[in-house]
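DUF6671 domain-containing protein
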Amino acid sequence: MKADAAETLSLGSNGPYRGRCAVLATMHGKEATIAPPFAERLGLSVEIPPGLDTDSLGTFSGEIARTGTIEEAAIAKARLGMAVTGVTLAIASEGSYGPHPQIPFIAAGFELMVLVDDDRGIVIREHLIDESPTYEHANAESVRELDGFLSRIGFPDHAVIVRPNGPDGSAPPIHKGIRSSADLQTAIEDCATRSDDGRAFVQTDMRAHMNRTRMATLGRLAERLAARISCLCPTCRTPGYGLTGVDKGLPCSWCGGPSILVRHQILGCVSCNHVERRARPDGLTHADPGQCPTCNP
Ligand SMILES: [Zn+2]
Ligand SMILES: [Zn+2]
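Tokens:
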């Protein structure tokens, strides 16, 4: 191994968290999908703190607004788990769903997961964009109007939330975690009668234990975070070394000026200031002039 190369711990090796236990701050059953990658890759087990109320930090359904960035929310959740248990190592995740930032008319999810390690004084983060989430809404007077919607979202494997239909869909009451046609009909009747237009607003319940697609997405994210944790900084050997950003400006093959394409990957450490620039993994060294603002303005 070269002295300046990052070290990725092999599976089963004696890594920094082998035999340790981290608090997983969730009350939505996320351990089912998050725990296995950490156990298999890092030898790190997770425990769920009893009586944890992460809803006090904000809810998906919006009764309590989250404050700050998604990363601040995830770290706050991890810290809540640490405070309840006295454990100095915690994992938490936070997600946000809405219209895709680049592609019209489709939905996307942003999921962020953190490991907070107070012994080392570090936070290791990883994220992913879910381009095909099960995230949708409709409105209806009765359950009969929802046949197409319910089959598209895979009800009842994906549960729904029902509220009165209104300008912002935020008026009470709110019925959460609905998984049967009978409960759905009752909730729609209740909410429709309280709405000015006589309709109920029905949407996918995005809590992990209510949305199988999101639960699977969190498993993929846990795999990525565990892989990043297993990579040590070449300078200080702190875990969590990896991609932190990119440089754009790959040279144009005609004029040599900066194109809009990525030139380098930037890798960094969560503890020291070690930074490394790596060539594109696809080996591309020059951009097509079509990607150049000078040749193709
Ligand atoms: Zn050019
Ligand atoms: Zn370092």
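The chain has three domains: 7-131+209-231, 137-205, 244-291.
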